[in-house]
Specification:
The protein is an alpha+beta fold. About 25% of the residues lie in helices and about 10% in strands. It contains four helices and four strands; from the N terminus they run E-E-E-H-H-E-H-H.
Length: about 110
């Protein structure tokens, strides 16, 4: 079954080795870039990667499901996205246009295929 549209697993591939063992390739994250429409967000108590995605990507189906795009986009690597960002820290949020037109683009998916 192929990954759903918008899934972070869209950027992995199923491969079969010479012994017939199937595995997923590494996912290719869309890393931080300095873009004019990036937003800086100061983390408040209780905010998570999921709540940030729900707030900034409103209008998309299951907006909170795009948490991975924000976590991947940080200048410093987010090692464990289950740990919420520290209150008072600043995170960089890609714009909705960047998410749709660059991060989720079909051209990018083909690039990593």
């Amino acid at each position: 079954m192929p990954p759903k549209v918008g899934s972070r697993h869209t950027f992995t591939r199923l491969r079969t080795d010479s012994d017939g063992v199937r595995y997923l390739t590494e996912r290719a994250p869309y890393l931080y870039r300095e873009l004019d429409d990036n937003e800086l967000h100061i983390i408040r108590q209780g905010e998570t990667w999921w709540t940030l995605a729900a707030r900034y990507f409103t209008g998309l189906p299951r907006a909170c499901g795009f948490w991975w795009a924000i976590a991947d986009f940080q200048p410093s690597t987010v090692v464990d996205p289950t740990i919420p960002p520290e209150p008072g820290s600043v995170v960089v949020v890609p714009s909705l246009a960047t998410l749709v037109n660059r991060i989720l683009s079909e051209d990018r998916r083909r690039e990593h295929g």
